[in-house]
Amino acid sequence: MTPEEITGLIAGVASFIAILAKHFGPDAKMREQTANTEEQAVKLEGRLVRLETKIDLFWTAIEQNIPRLLKQPTHLLRDRLLDKMSKGDLSREEAKELMEDLKNDTEASDGTKVLALTLVLARLQQLVDDNG
């Protein structure tokens, strides 16, 4: 065997070892961890989307049904804003205005009205925070 053939053989073996090291070495573990992380991220994203959908359904039900429990013939502005909330047309400034009005409501004495007031205030706070 000539020196050139030996050098070529050594270079070939070294290349083969380098390929094996690359495929089965630390990089392989890194690729596996990355794949696992990506898979977990996709699963987490799916769970978050499902949760967000359920929460949106809850708040939609609150917006459409609960405000009518707080309406009174003596509070025309409040009633108008509650109607806008029920339709989903409430702006951030209107939400703030309605929050202030409802926070000052001292007439909430029965349990149903207290619960309605609490739920509407929570939703208004979320609307103000989300839009700001």
Question: What would your notes on this structure say?
Answer:
This protein is 81% helix and 0% strand. It starts with a helix and ends with a helix. The longest helix is centred in the middle third of the chain and has 40 residues, at 26-65. It is rod-shaped. It has 132 residues and is mainly alpha-helical. The protein has two domains: 1-51; 66-132, no CATH class.
SSE topology sketch:
Layout: H1 3-24, H2 26-65, H3 76-87, H4 92-103, H5 111-131
Helix pairs in contact: 1-2, 3-4, 4-5
Task: Give the gist of this structure.
Helix content is 81%, strand content 0%. With 132 residues, the chain is mainly α. The mean pLDDT is 86.
List keywords for this structure.
2 domains; 132 residues
Beta-strand content: under 5%
Mean pLDDT: 86
Sheet with most strands: none
Number of strands: 0
Q: Give the proportion of residues in helices.
A: over 70%
Q: What is the succession of H and E elements?
A: HHHHH
Which class best fits the helix and strand makeup? mainly alpha
Number of domains: 2
Q: Would you identify the regions where 5 or more consecutive residues have pLDDT less than 50? A: none
Helices, by number, come to: 5
Q: State the end-to-end CA separation.
A: 79 Å
Radius of gyration: 32 Å
| Shape verdict | rod-shaped
